[in-house]
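Quick review question:
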């Protein structure tokens, strides 16, 4: 069944032509990623689907009673409700039904003690019965528990779910808005950059949620791994043209490249045909005997629809970081670092040594301290204890969102760089801008008209006015489209110095990082290998960390040494330690299973009680006794509240049990 159909859609913003002849059919179960460079009109196309913008040409057909949920890139700040209440409010139909049911219960209780007509009471009862049936159909009794499950998946702690939404930053508000949409369960989800404010764990959870989502999904994203995991079609919007491909992102790249190659061959063949005809025209243009044939060929050339070959700018565009001085082998040392924010200790007694050539990705949940560690490494954040020492010839450059926000919109590109490069000559500044893809007239463009990707490149160029050999980069791919991310990836791989970066782009991590630091719960653990090594090794570390009593866990961050060959005595000791770990885990999961069984039993009993009381509330005879009906309503409300509490407890226990079992599944079976 078609939910939304776009036919011949065209759109321009003033003199800027965005796209034309866009045709797309979104059916139930369809999952489509819209990709393309920044400024191509991807968000505009989503808003045409919702009806928030009108197309200049073409038609939009939406299914009857279609429910569309739209996640924007920016959401308004709000307050006055808890996080979980805000998410539950997104299930508008269910929330509205519940409010009306509570109102009818009050009306019926009051009617029972007054001289209400039998017809009035019967009318209330009929409405209550219909609402109750619909409420149960929509899963109303478990609504809050489901909201909490979604919020947990998006990274909220249980305690934070009951805080006022006004206490959270814009990034966390985006998670609230996303959770609200997911709970609402619309027929069609439109998601504009849904992973921008999510950590890696939340991105992976969202992938799993969308994989089981019953409705259709259309998303705009520059995260290749996310696209590959979620979609079954990719639509490219580029140079005003809209082309749909079947498959995931990898399939799209293969099909697009093959299509471009075929178009290129066809265009060259067409060019040879046109050249041959034009040579004939030129040869016989002034010969009277050939006049008719010449005119025929002139018309033939005019009628030819020229084949346009889309450009693949990722293969043509490169930029590079200026060559820095070579640093010493040890680039930076942190010794017993202590960092606090008020009474909250982020790091206590942290050690770290980075060496020349390491390219480290910091990984961990939002709020764990990744940005704090990066700022300490960059020297832009003071700390309460310990020593930070740079190696010989080390020059640090720190990049974060505030460098982009600090760009002066009134300056030209050249003027903006000149303000940070007082010691450079004009020729040197032009060469530096050229390395970051600003050449010719582009250096005279105003900052205010630059795309997000261009602003990112300009901010990086300013940082490199004094070439650095230690780059500290906080989310450098934000605002970059996929092509620009490819360019940055190549530049980082070619950089001869040391890099520490924070990014939620797993593709970039896998492509660039040769070491991973996991930051969580005040601890930081170094995995001296790429992302695949980290993913595999992490399971073993979870299993064995602190397992053998009397052997201390390494303080702070330490390299993981190669394991020497074991003696038979050592092997026996290791096996005993591993067996003890398995026994402890079994006891822990056994307790969780027992608690879960008790909760599920109480859920069943409470649901049966709710059903019995609901039947009595639906009986007009109940309201003959005013006091008894009041007491029944109060017991019904208490049972409903208990259902919410049990749902939250079931969610917590299930999450803990899944985490414990996941640790078990990550543990290697062989050394």
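Suggested answer, residue by residue:
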């Amino acid at each position: 069944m078609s939910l939304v159909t776009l036919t011949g859609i065209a759109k321009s913003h003033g003199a800027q032509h965005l796209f034309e002849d866009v045709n797309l059919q979104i059916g139930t179960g369809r999952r489509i990623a819209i990709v393309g460079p920044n400024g191509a009109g991807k968000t505009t196309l989503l808003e045409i689907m919702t009806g928030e913008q009108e197309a200049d040409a073409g038609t939009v057909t939406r299914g009857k009673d279609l429910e569309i949920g739209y996640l924007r890139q920016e959401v308004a700040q709000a307050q006055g409700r808890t996080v979980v209440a805000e998410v539950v409010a997104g299930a508008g139909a269910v929330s509205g039904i519940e409010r009306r049911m509570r109102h009818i219960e009050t009306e019926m209780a009051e009617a029972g003690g007054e001289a209400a007509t039998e017809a009035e009471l019967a009318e209330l009862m009929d409405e209550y019965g219909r609402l109750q049936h619909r409420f149960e159909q929509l899963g109303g009794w478990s609504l809050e528990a489901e909201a909490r499950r979604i919020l947990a998946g998006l990274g909220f702690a249980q305690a934070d779910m009951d805080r006022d939404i006004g206490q959270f930053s814009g990034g966390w508000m985006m998670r609230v808005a996303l959770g609200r949409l997911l709970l609402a369960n619309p027929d069609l989800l439109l998601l504009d950059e849904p992973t921008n404010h999510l950590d890696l764990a939340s991105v992976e959870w969202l992938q799993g949620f969308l994989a089981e989502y019953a409705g259709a999904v259309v998303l705009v994203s520059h995260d290749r791994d996310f696209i590959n995991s979620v979609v079954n079609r990719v639509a490219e919007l580029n140079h005003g043209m809209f082309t749909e491909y079947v498959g995931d992102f990898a399939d799209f790249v293969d099909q697009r490249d093959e299509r471009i190659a075929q178009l290129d061959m066809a265009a060259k063949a067409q060019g040879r045909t046109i050249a041959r005809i034009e040579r004939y025209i030129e040869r016989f243009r002034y010969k009277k005997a050939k006049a008719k044939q010449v005119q025929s060929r002139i018309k033939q050339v005019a009628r030819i629809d020229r084949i346009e070959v889309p450009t693949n700018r990722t293969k043509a565009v490169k930029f590079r970081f200026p060559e820095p001085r070579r640093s010493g082998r040890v680039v930076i040392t942190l010794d017993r670092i202590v960092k606090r924010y008020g009474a909250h200790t982020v790091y206590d007694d942290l050690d770290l040594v980075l060496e020349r050539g390491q390219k480290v990705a910091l990984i961990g949940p939002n709020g764990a301290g990744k940005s704090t560690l990066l700022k300490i490494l960059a020297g832009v954040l003071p700390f309460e204890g310990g020593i930070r020492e740079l190696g010989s010839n080390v020059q640090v450059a720190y990049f974060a969102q505030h460098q982009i926000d600090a760009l002066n919109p009134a300056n030209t590109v050249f003027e903006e760089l000149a303000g940070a490069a007082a010691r450079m000559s004009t020729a040197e500044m032009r060469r530096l801008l050229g390395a970051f893809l600003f050449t010719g007239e582009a250096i005279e463009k105003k900052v205010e008209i630059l795309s997000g990707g261009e602003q990112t490149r300009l901010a990086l160029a300013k940082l490199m006015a004094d070439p650095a050999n230690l780059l500290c980069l906080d989310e450098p791919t934000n605002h970059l489209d996929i092509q620009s991310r490819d360019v940055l990836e190549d530049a980082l791989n070619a950089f001869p110095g040391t890099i520490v970066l924070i990014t939620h782009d797993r593709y970039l991590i896998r492509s660039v990082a040769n070491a991973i630091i996991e930051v969580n719960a005040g601890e930081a653990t170094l995995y001296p290998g790429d992302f695949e090594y980290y993913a595999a090794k992490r399971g073993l570390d979870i299993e064995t960390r602190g397992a053998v009593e009397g052997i201390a866990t390494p303080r702070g961050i330490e390299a993981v040494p190669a394991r020497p060959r074991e003696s038979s005595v050592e092997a026996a000791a290791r096996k005993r330690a591993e067996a003890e770990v398995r026994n402890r885990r079994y006891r822990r999961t056994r307790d969780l299973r027992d608690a879960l069984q008790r909760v599920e039993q109480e859920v069943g009993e409470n649901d049966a009680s709710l059903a019995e009381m609901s039947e009595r509330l639906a009986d007009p005879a109940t309201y003959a006794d005013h006091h008894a009906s009041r007491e029944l309503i109060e017991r019904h409300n208490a049972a409903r509240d208990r259902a919410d509490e049990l749902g939250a407890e079931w969610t917590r226990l299930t999450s803990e049990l899944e985490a414990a079992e996941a640790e078990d599944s990550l543990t290697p079976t062989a050394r």
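Why it works: The first helix runs from residue 42 to 50. Residues 269 and 422 are 53 Å apart (CA to CA).
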